[in-house]
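Summary of Year 1 activities. Much of the first year was spent building the evaluation harness for sequence design. The harness presents a backbone, in tokenized form, and records the residue chosen at every position. We chose the following record to illustrate the format because it has been used consistently in internal testing since the harness was completed.
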């Protein structure tokens, strides 16, 4: 196995690693700018197993980050609270993460770190097909987490 250099894996949060949409009344809460769904969303995977795989990937030169959106049509104050809730969720559930990018809802994810510069084969794991398509158009690699995420991650070190 060959060690790679300067390659990144980014995770989306909502619907990808945090089960926001499984929280009862999540949409009503977001529309009323209630932060609770972001705070109580359950992980979508066995996070102990996911963190272990990501630690192995770090040993091969990958860094791990999150690129996530704020709530749609949210006030600035609400998005500040959402950002903090998501950072806390990441600290509690994905401690292997070393980069956190929070963007307004709908901003293309490649803008989080690259300001429209072509992505150099970095990986985005996101449940949104359109977001994955835009990422790939900028030169990145996208993984659909609804396919076997652990198998897809294991392929990166095979």
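For this record, the design step produced the sequence shown next.
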């Amino acid at each position: 196995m060959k060690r790679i250099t300067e390659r990144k894996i980014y995770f989306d949060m909502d619907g990808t690693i945090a089960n926001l949409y499984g929280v009862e009344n999540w949409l009503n809460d977001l529309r009323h700018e209630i932060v609770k769904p972001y705070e109580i969303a359950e992980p979508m995977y066995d996070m102990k197993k996911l963190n272990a795989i990501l630690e192995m990937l770090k040993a091969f030169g990958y860094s791990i980050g999150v690129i996530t959106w704020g709530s749609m049509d949210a006030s600035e104050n609400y998005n500040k609270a959402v950002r903090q809730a998501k950072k806390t969720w990441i600290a509690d559930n994905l401690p292997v993460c070393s980069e956190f990018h929070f963007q307004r809802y709908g901003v293309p994810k490649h803008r989080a770190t690259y300001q429209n510069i072509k992505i150099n084969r970095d990986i985005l794991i996101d449940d949104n097909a359109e977001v994955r398509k835009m990422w790939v158009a900028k030169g990145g690699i996208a993984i659909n987490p609804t396919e076997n995420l652990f198998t897809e991650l294991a392929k990166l070190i095979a």
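The beta strands are 7-11, 62-69, 99-103, 123-125, 141-143. Quantitative recovery figures across the full test set are reported in Table 2.
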